[in-house]
Amino acid sequence: MTITEFKEFPMDMDAKLNYPKKNLNDGELFAIIKVETSLKCEDFQLFDFGSVGNGDIDCSNGLWIYAPATATKLSITHKLAGTIVNHLLPMQLKPATVYKMVIESGRQISRIEETLNYGYLVVKSNVDGSLFKISQNGNEIKSDYISTQPKTMTLAPGQYTYTVEVVDYETERGVFTIKNEESSNLTANLRSSMGSLSVNSSPEQGAYVNINGKRQERTTPATFPLRKGNYQITVYKDLYKQAESTVTVSAGEQAVYNAVLSANFAEVAVDAPAGAYVYIDGNQSGEGKWAGRLEAGMHTVEVEKASHVSFKTSVNLVNGEKKLVSVPPLTPIYGKLNVVTDPVYASVVIDGIEQTSKTPCVVKDVLVGDRKVKLVPASSEYETFETMVNISEGKITNLNKTFTKKPKAVAATVGSDFTDSRSNQVTRTHPGEPEMIAVKGGTFTMGSSSGDNDEKPVHSVTVSDFKIGKYEVTQAQWRAVMGSNPSYFKGDNLPVEKVSWDDCQEFIRKLNAATGKNYRLPTEAEWEYAARGGSRSNGYEYSGSNTLGDVAWYDSNSGNETHPVGRKKPNELGIYDMSGNVWEWCSDWYGSYSSGSQTNPKGAASGSYRVYRGGSWYGNAARCRVAFRHGNSPDDRRSILGFRLVLP
Question: What b/e sequence results for 212-241 when a residue is b if at least 16 CB atoms lie within 10 Å of its CB, and e otherwise?
């Protein structure tokens, strides 16, 4: 081993600026001798500069010797190539200066080098949570989850196959090779396996959709996210033949299925007189002129009017036919009323119509049934008399009355008060009226910070006192007001459903006209306040409990049908079924919440959808939360939609 070259590099700044080291003996910066040799740096064992002190060796940038500037000779020891002893340096070294030295070995060096016997695989995926599986010769040898951050694995040299898979993405497969003591990089670029299906129906939208036999909550038109693949689609609507098709959904694309529904009905109009009721196949369908759709086939149409002879006929209907059933004038059924009074000459008023004859008299052609009769004495000294009289067909009914004189007037006491102890109760005078619960007004926090975006922002709302239905409006109550039952699931004590927001307004109009009261749908704020338990609220997630099954019928316990009202536990105010059973229409347009405090808010000023709340027998638990909101077109009718009433 000999030194064959030694020279100075004055322009190299490594010793002075880039990699300087200080000699602790004299405080000067070391010179750097950069050695060029075929020998490995790590095999040099000693660099000795004699009495002036030892320097240092650095193998990080090659073989560099940090030497004191006072050195005049150099001794080098290498564990395989031998030793150079007391070699005189060809020049005096300078502090912080770089020199080049070439060492050549005349010996053939043989060595056994240690090897790792493995390599590295650096792997990542464009989708977090991807499962990375490695196989060799058909056997899986390793699996791990990878993400967008690189992950290092050690593997023996060889060829491997791999798969990368994650839900909603296509599986990636491939081959890679590991070499000893080398690093390989692998990046999985997974493609989404999701697509979507848009379903429409004609000639009418609002049809139900089954995908692979499972009924979807949304009706047409609707778009459903689906994984790529083939799907069996069924679209159906009352009075139409269902349409079926197999649709292929591709990743990253939207498939479209336009279902054409064939009519399975005839359009029928019944020209009944005012005040008459129309019955189709024994079921009351309307009052007065009626029009609707009926399935093809034989049907019975009957028209009834109190105190008249009924009309009945059969019609055979064909799909697509428009049929008018003309009803001849109904023949009235009469009896007679013989009226005798004391004193005589009283006026007779029957059902609000004053008769021409004065008592005593026989009034002919009085319609049979219960008639309201008022007798007005000729003298104002006597009290007017009113009663109900039942008139029978072809018979004379007698009415005799001796009038009572009016009592003398008594002066009223000025300033007297009257308090009705039952002012908090609602006296029901009509079979269509619901049982009501009084709700004391107050302030509450409306919405949810952890719910869907339309439940935010959470805001303070104050509502006044009101009364709300203890139960959802039942089919018996609907029939008592409307004379019909549109519900899919039948039962007097089941909640009425398949009623639109518009239908509810018609029900309320008729009920208020019959009772003289002011029923209405609850505002969204009133509904949520009552559902939360009002001033008695315990802060439950659902109406009355944090355990949904205790208070609600929903998709996990309903058996895919509605249930009689009031079968589950009530909430803190004694109100039933505000979570589950059927969604409940509110009066508001569906819109965004305001962040500010509000008093008796009535929702958005306008919109396309009306709000409904509470979840249903078909919905999941999340939709039964008291803060959850939903909405749809005011003419939407489905078996999940019902309502309850409030009174101010």
Answer: eeeeebebbebebebebeebebbbbbebbe
Q: How far is CA 226 from the centre of its chain?
A: 17
Give burial (CB, 10 Å; 0-12/13-18/19+) of 270: buried
CATH number of the domain located at residue range(s) 194-263 in this protein: 2.60.40.1120
Q: Which of 577, 538, 530, 586 is nearest to 558 (CA)?
A: 577
Q: What is the CATH number of domain 436-647?
A: 3.90.1580.10
DSSP state of 114: -
Element (DSSP H or E) covering residue 475: helix 475-482
CATH class for the domain made up of 334-402: mainly beta
Global pTM exceeds 0.90: no
Model confidence over 38-92: pLDDT tens digits?
888 888 776 777 655 567 788 888 888 888 888 888 788 877 777 776 677 888 8
Residues spanned by CATH 2.60.40.1120 within the chain?
119-188, 194-263
- The pLDDT assigned to 422 comes to 33
